[in-house]
Amino acid sequence: MTRALVLFAHGARAASWAAPFERLRDLTAARLPGCTVRLAFLELMEPRLPETVSQLVADGVGDVTIVPVFLGQGGHLLRDLPLLADGLRTAHPGLRLNVAGAVGEDPDVLDAMTNYCVRSIL
Q1: Which end of the chain is more exposed for a tag (fewer CB within 10 A), N or C?
Q2: CATH number, domain at 56?
Q3: Domain range for 34
Q4: Taking the complete model, does pTM exceed 0.85, yes or no?
Q5: One digit per residue, pLDDT tens: the chain, 122 residues?
């Protein structure tokens, strides 16, 4: 079964806002050569999550993991993402869809951010 990883970010009006997420996508893809890695947005930017997943399914992907590139579990991840995931499961009943926790809540990510903050004052 073909697998894909979708990095899911909020989106913003300024196109330059997407640059760090695009770098993250590219770095992630380089470490997962057998996996399709895409970037999708909740709002204000394209591509949106439903279109991204629909295109992956059309390309033959049967297993998609969504990684919310958010610092915490705010309203978008508590309300919006579950609704989007339910809609995707309904639209693509054969798709295996997994949703990871917010990247900013992972202990290793928090440790890396703490290290950066500490280094910035030294």
Answers
A1: C
A2: 3.40.50.1400
A3: 2-121
A4: yes
A5: 699 999 999 988 988 999 999 999 999 999 999 999 999 999 888 999 999 999 999 999 999 999 999 987 767 777 899 999 999 999 999 999 999 999 999 999 999 999 999 999 97
* Ramachandran sector of residue 13 (left: φ over 0; alpha: ψ -120 to 50; beta: rest): alpha
Q: How many domains, the chain?
A: 1
**Which of these, 50, 52, 51, 47, lies nearest to 11 by C-alpha position?**
47
Helix (H/G/I), strand (E/B), else coil: 71: coil
Both tokens assigned to 102: 């917010």
Query: Based on the number of CB atoms within 10 Å of its own CB, is 29 exposed (0-12), middle (13-18) or buried (19 or more)?
Result: middle
